[in-house]
Amino acid sequence: AFGYRYPLVFPYEWHKALHIFGAVIFVGNIIVTGAWMLLAERTRDPSVIQFAARTANWADVLFTGPGVILVLWNGLVLAHQLNGIYRTSWIAAALGLFALSGIVWVVFLIPHQHRLIQRSGDEFLRTLHRWYFWGIIATILPLVSLVLMVVKPTLW
Known about the structure:
Layout: H1 12-43, H2 46-81, H3 89-118, H4 121-151
Helix pairs in contact: 1-2, 1-4, 2-3, 3-4
């Protein structure tokens, strides 16, 4: 169980590179999407903001989703090579933060993005500002996870 090393699909270095690539496209997309929406809001043109919301949905499909898959799959493979997830505190904490970010994304951000496409006026702006709030939380969580992956502190 704990002592068993799962076989690697690719050499260790390739799993590590794919894990880092996934983190780059995942974190990069969530930061760029927030900036994109903020710039769109500054135009005060509902059609521009709704276009940005539709683009954010597509960016999630093209970048966030594949980034999550690459981070999670390769991260789990790498974690099993390093004594496992639960025996290394920084891996367990980083995985927990990553999962919490995913929950925020699915429960709050994606529904708000869909509402942004359908709404207008004051209701649109209220939805957009809620999207910003949850977006900041969903961005900070994986950034802290990323720091844990680099620093590798002993937490417990």
